[in-house]
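Notes to self after the call with IL:
- keep both proteins in one doc
- input above output, always
- annotate only the second one for now

Protein 1:
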Amino acid sequence: MSERFTGTVEIVDGQGRQVFKFDSSFAVLDLGALGNEGDLRLRGDDGATKIALDGGQQLINVTNAAGTTVFRFDAGNSLLDLGPSLPGGAGKGDEADLRIWGADGQVKIHLDGSTGDIKLSGADCAEDFEVEETEEPEPGSVMAIADGGKLRRCAQAYDKRVAGVISGAGSHKPGIILGRRQGSGANSRIPLALSGRVYCRVDAEYAPVGVGDLLTTSPTAGHAMRAEDPHRAFGATIGKALHPLGRGTGLLPILIALQ
């Protein structure tokens, strides 16, 4: 038989201190009192504590089936431990992994405790820059450095001011973005791929592009082209083409290699 009630439930200890209070109006549960901190312990069917919230030491402790601590958050020292760690030393067991999922159900960031690797689903390392143009350039556009240090779309062949390619075009998204902050005034900020793989706007009307061809800036605004003159390409190279483009313009995956 079930019972329903409204209001609060209060429990006091032997000294009359309120150590338990549940307020149904606000769905608030308080444990502990001055001089008598609250603890919450969840036990398994074997009688052992599996999850412990220690109000006195400000600890959250979780154990696995073997009784080894695998999750420990120490609020007093702002410390989070994942894996078979114990307060007095290292334990043994399965390593800890931390995975952050995206809205598409795919892992975007994976911290692998077994190998010590940080695995990112993005394909390039980018950094935010302010753009000189009032209209924000499209992802994949080739950018050059303007007189004021901001960026503009390239508009000439073999431009030694080339800075990189705007990240985010096609299926290649940035893995790391440095310097992320809001633009000032009317100037927007865009992530510029400085290394890794990125989709780049390429114009093959100047020359067909093959796999492995070096790319440089072209007279077509925001587009790269095949670098045919090695002397002019020195200092104006964007990267290497990963797919061919026989004619026309298009988005091409490239390997950023500024030089």
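Protein 2 (the one to annotate):
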Amino acid sequence: MTRRPIVLLHGYSDHAQSFDTWRRHLVDAGWEATTIHVGDFVTLSNEITIKDVAEGFDRALRIRAGLDADEPFDAIVHSTGSLVIREWLATYGTRVRRVKRLVGLAPANFGSPLAHKGASWLGAVFKGNKHWGPDFMEAGSLVLDGLELGSRYTWDLAHRDLVGEHAIYDATDETPFPFVIVGDEGYGGLRKLVNDPGSDGTVRWAGTALDTRKIQLDLTRARDDGAASRIEIAPWANLDVPFAFAPGHDHGSILRDPSPALVAMVREALEVEDAAAYHGWGERHAWSEQDAKPERWQQFVMRAVDERGDPVPDWYLEVGTGHGDDFERLDDFALDVHPYSADPSFRCFHANLGELRPAERSSLVLRLTARSGSELVAYHGIGSERFTAEGDERAGDGTWDAQIDLTSMLNDDGVTFFHPFTTTLVEVRLNREPMPPSGVNRVLKFAGG
């Protein structure tokens, strides 16, 4: 087995010493201590972004770790460290050949439900910088912004490295072999108050996996107008990336107190040399549908924009079955919704598939409400069924309601909407029009005549 240098990257508000246990295990397993490089990067500064950290990482590889510009290495990353190395890899395409094994311990690939809490003053008190100096009591607001559920940063990064033609993890010898391992328990003691269902206490299980797909629903054009289909479904990316649970671990213990079984899993991952061995690791350790636990969760990051690409900030979505008055809402789908605070056109939905029981559903319908807040303009989707408005009328605050049947759209392509431990990106495009939608409008009209 080729023993390459190993780079270790910690997470938000952490430090290099947190990897002491893992470093000791690696040395005991035969790695030379001089080839293990533990990063120590700044997150608790309100001027630093994840992209800044990735740029610092690139320079540190050359100057502090002493790696040549094209020298390959392996990496073990925890939490936010996953976003740092993904950002570094996505910036230049040739970098994907340098990282051979990428082990993510509870990686925050789609953020954390705790991030928006950390941006508050209370978060600064408990997680902020405690050392006197220019950054005293700062909580790292820009890093936390990127870590917030449904953030623009994680949305954009996924478009650069996870979905469509830009997906860079294809389980071949030309790209990294990624491994995702997350604890199956939340925090105990007093910290259990922050536990989010379907998480290890800090990151959601579904949000750690790299299994990602994008669905774009374009309601700015009619389905039969000769244009391209109104729905574009990117194929699932990275379904071959193994997603495994570390029994008995939470977000902290997976880093600071790994069990012998977990250490063995990681050592085995670092010995993978080819695609066959990589798939073999997944067959032995990855979660499968046959596993009795834990509960199946899925995450959806949705965005609504108008035909110009501008955000639709005020919208609401329900998922259900049936049509018109027979619509039956899947209540559990919308129980856990987080609007991204910097741009609420982004929303993150977290659903327990065991409660939804999607396999029992014969149809799937989206019910969408969009509101402009003005009688002068309103949103509208072509070819969708309005169920609260008559004719071309809208409510006085520009509210528009629609019901969209996704069943035929999805099933025609053999696609299902629900898949455990994945993140689906959904973008809905609407028209934004001066009101009323036909005849003389209220936004601009010519005087006289």
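Annotation: The two ends are 85 Å apart (CA to CA). The first strand starts at residue 6 and ends at 9.
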